[in-house]
Amino acid sequence: MADPSPASFWTQANALLRKNLTYQRKHMWTNVRLILVPLFLCLLLLAIQQVLDALMKSVSELANDCKSNPNLPGGICPIQNPPLLPPMLQVPQQELRSVKADIFSYRDLPDKSCRGTGGSCPVTILITGDKQPLGKSISASIFATSFAVNSSDLLPTLANNVLGSTEAAGENNYADPGIASDLPIYSIQHLCGENSTWPLSLGNIQTEVKCVQGLCLWRNNSAEVNNELFKGSWRGNPAGITNEIAAAYDLMSTDKKNFNVTIWYNSTYKDEFSIRPVKLLRVPRSINLISNAYLNFLKGPTTKILFEFVKEVPKQATQYNQDIASLLGPLFFTWVVLLLFPVILTSLVYEKQERLRIIMKMHGLGDGPYWMISYAYFLTLSLLYVVSLVIFGSAIGLKYFRLNSYSIQFVFYFIYSNLQIALAFLVSSVFSKVKTVTVVAYILVYGTGLLGSFLFQKMLETQSFPEEWIVALELYPGFSLYRGLYEFSQYASRGNGMKWEDLSDSGMGEVLCIMSIEWFLALIVALYVDQVVSSGKHPFFFLEKLSKKPSSSLPRKPTIQRLHSRKVSIDMDMEKLDVTQEKEKVQQLRNEGSKGHAIVCDNLKKVYPGRDGNPPKMAVRGLYLSVPPGECFGMLGPNGAGKTSFISMMTGLLKPSSGTALVQGLDICKDMNKVYTSMGVCPQHDLLWETLTGREHLLFYGRLKNVKGSALTQAVEGSLKSVSLFDGGVGDKPAGNYSGGMKRRLSVAISLIGNPKVAYLDEPSTGLDPASRKSLWDVIKRAKQNTAIILTTHSMEEAEFLCDRLGIFVDGGLQCIGNSKELKSRYGGSYVFTMTTSSKHEQEVERLVSAVSPNAKKIYHLAGTQKFELPKQEVSIAEVFRAVEKAKSNFTVFAWGLADTTLEDVFIKVARNAQAFISLS
User: Fold this and answer.
1) Which segments cross the bilayer (predicted)?
2) DSSP code of 191?
């Protein structure tokens, strides 16, 4: 026997835990494969590492020959003493230099004819500031007036000249492409003379220097400079005409005591979209030019800041034993960790799609136990997953895992796993289809990795990118994960790994704080949304107790139309005395207390709002109903009558628009969670776990009903026997192998296990064969001894066999209520006379019926078969027999019959009359 008290929190948690363990045991290899995914991925990394090492083996062998051959290609050998390279200015190509164009109003630029063959367009520099005279004085000293080189003392003499190159800078300064290329080096001067080309020897490199004019132009303000720079760039000119400026200076408030300058330079020579390192920019010479010009302005032309050379730091021999995990870590491991998100999310949405959670809730499972057990399962799975990732990665020798502190890795993965689970619970409330959420989840997984690698990482590595924006981007959990993995990668690649003392110097401490806060907030929001969406509570349910006020409404003054409608409804109620009596009974129970009745519905209404221009739909119209324990109440009605809406309100799927219902004295609008503990439900469609057996289903739901120990075993076996699922080991087979009828019987057994106080059976015998149906009816009949049952059905035979009372439900309201005999007596005051003859004798049959019953009504006519309703008060059965015997002597009668009114006839008559009345009103 079931414990009469509801199952406690821990009893419910134990029931769900046992069910989940059983379910997961049947899916053990699926979970094992999931946990082994990191092993396969780490092995993939190891294979890539081996292939990379093999490819680089020959290069590494070359690196060992650096002493005998220090000039090996590719920068393999170490560079102890980097060459001293002359500083150069980035010069636009000949055909891209700034010239006169329609897009500019300035006329001081050179004519575009200088771009022709053999042309010599000058290199233009713009200058602006608060003081034009000072600006023009400084601009006069920017460029040299001649080119002269002392080969014995090369660097100082080169420092006095302004050299430039159209070749983009390289990735380092060990070998500047501008010097080593076939393109000339330019000497930028105020004017170029006739002899404008000079040979130049830089070590082993023989090149030539070509003169090009330098043009300094004044602009009134920085806005004009910005406009000219932008319109002259390839990004800012829709016509495709490029007018590149070499550099620009804003002297702002510069005077003889203050040197205040802003420098514009061309950054389009960077490899912004390349995975290779960013190229260097030739900015130092631009700084030196304006600084020297200002010094000349103050001290005269003999005073100079010599900018002799640019020199790279010494270089070690190139190493090709790069740890592939550290190189690919952020992107690769972001995908690896995020692969758990679709698994958790689809599992939650599957329970929602198959309505498994709601059926568990209807049988008494509270939200607390569900959240605790589900969260604990996902957290355990996540930790096993990431621990296996770290263990496997370390076992195969990946420095990414070995060098970084394991404690930091555990804390990082633990916090993110919790955040990911909380987000999965939150996101699952938005979706109801597994296919949809699967697509969305995998788009998030791969999209996050790609955006992190090609966008977020670029921002991290850009020194000028604001730190506040980095923090803002890390508010997206995927980027927080990427940032943490990126930091692991950076510290591992340096060879020392991340330790706890490194948290303040890296972004890891910031990431851990952000994820911890988001974990807490996401969990709170997910719990709140679950209460609103899944439990059907008001969005501000937490304020209801504070803001609860007595409701008062003034009656509206009825219009003439309302008065007319009220009169019609009163006339209709006169014919429905049974419904009126039920209403009075409910009102009396509410006044005196409804403890003696299991179910009391008091003016229960449900209105669906109008959509697409349609008026609101009244699904349930002020239902009054009382069902005591031990009674089976049958609800009959045509499709669309409102039966499903009524059952949905009683089981918590829908909130009533007004009115309420009491179940065991508990209000369904306020105490639905308590109502669930004493309720059993057999839904219209079977909601089962395909891999759990019938016995395992019953064990789970029995525990939710607080049935324990030997009583639980006996209850389960008794339930299996009662629904014919015990013999032959059927109860120990997966429910997915059951036929439709077997699933239906199991659903009924689930709804009745533990002797619930109230049970709702929605068409329980659908799809059963006659023998199984009769057996199931016996089960329901025995169960109703201690249970109030509300049963919906379209089988009149089932209704007569099981139901103590019946109610016919049409267009949202009860039209009649009573037991089968009362309804037949009240609405079936006639016999149904049927006779089949040849078509030529149909008139004679009509005359025969008129003679027996003057008020007879023909209700059916087809191919010689006619049916008539004969009022009982004017018909004698003996007289009907005599009339038929007499008719047989006059014409041939193929068949005839006289039947009393059936429940089906009553149903059809009541439904038709109600619908006719509704259409008239």
Assistant:
1) 28-48, 324-350, 370-398, 410-431, 437-456
2) S
Closest CA to 92 of 139, 125, 138, 141: 125
Contact of 543 with 528, CB cutoff 8 Å: no
Length of the chain: 921
Is 148 a member of any domain? Answer: yes
**Can you tell me the distance from the alpha carbon of 849 to that of 839, in angstroms, rounded to the nearest whole number?**
16
Do both 119 and 29 map to the same domain?
Answer: no
Let me know whether 290 and 437 are in one domain.
no
Q: Please tell me the distance from the alpha carbon of residue 818 to that of residue 801, in angstroms, as a whole number.
A: 14
Contact 723, 729 (CB under 8 A): no
- What is the DSSP-derived secondary structure letter of residue 874? G
Distances (CA, A) of 708 to 369, 694, 711, 715: 18, 18, 6, 10
Residue 850 is part of a domain; what is its CATH number?
A: 3.30.70.100
Q: Is residue 912 part of a domain?
A: no
Same domain, 37 and 85: no
Q: Tell me, yes or no, whether 269 and 329 share the same domain.
A: no
The DSSP bridge partners found for residue 187 are 163, 211
Alpha-carbon gap, residue 209 to 195, rounded angstroms:
11
Residues 294 and 335 in one domain: no
Please tell me whether residues 90 and 17 are part of one structural domain: no
From 658, 910, 901, 900, select the one nearest 806 (Cα to Cα): 910
Mean local confidence (pLDDT), 62-87: 69
Could you tell me if 682 and 764 are in contact, meaning their C-beta atoms sit under 8 angstroms apart?
A: yes
Q: Which domain holds residue 190?
A: 80-299
> Which token pair is 470?
């980095």
CA 888, CA 884: separation in Å to the nearest integer? 6
776 is a domain residue: no
* Residue 861, helix vs strand vs coil: strand
Q: Which residues contact 286 (CB under 8 A, 6 or more apart)?
A: 89, 247, 263, 265
Whether residue 239 is contained in a domain is answered as: yes
Candidate ranges 39-48, 140-149, 738-747; pick with highest mean pLDDT: 738-747
CB under 8 Å to 69, separation ≥6 — which residues?
none
What CA–CA distance (Å, rounded) separates 365 from 288?
77
* Token pair of 504 as six digits: 């303040």
Task: Give residue 569's pLDDT band: very low, low, confident or very high (50, 70, 90).
Answer: very low
Give the three-state DSSP class for 433. coil
Total domain count, the chain: 3
Angle at 568 between CA 567 and CA 572, to 5 degrees: 115
Kindly report the three-state secondary structure assignment for every residue of 516-547.
HHHHHHHHHHHHHHHHHHCCCCCCCHHHHHHH
- Determine which helix (DSSP H) or strand (DSSP E) holds 679, and give its type and residue range: strand 679-682
DSSP letter, residue 658: E
> Final residue of a domain: which of 247, 268, 299?
299
Question: 106: Cβ–Cβ under 8 A, 6 or more apart, which residues?
Answer: 100, 217, 219, 228
Digit-coded pLDDT (tens) for 373-402 = 999 999 999 999 999 989 988 888 788 888
DSSP readout, 450-477? HHIIIIIHHHHH-TTS-HHHHHHHHTSH
Tell me the pairing of strands 865-871 and 857-862.
antiparallel
CB of 553 closer than 8 Å to CB of 385: no
- Please name the residues in contact with 129: beta carbons below 8 A apart, sequence gap of 6 or more: 135, 249, 250, 251, 252, 253, 254
Q: Does 468 lie in the same domain as 331?
A: yes
Q: Residue 210 belongs to what H/E stretch?
A: strand 205-218
Look at residues 533, 568, 588 and tell me which one is the last residue of a structural domain: 533
Q: What confidence category does residue 275 fall into, taking pLDDT thresholds of 50, 70 and 90?
A: very low
Q: Express each pLDDT in 222-241 by its tens digit.
A: 999 998 888 887 665 655 56
Neighbours of 885 (CB within 10 A): 10
Output the CA torsion 50→55→61→67 (10° steps). Answer: -120
- pTM over 0.85, yes/no: no
Q: Do 276 and 186 belong to one domain?
A: yes
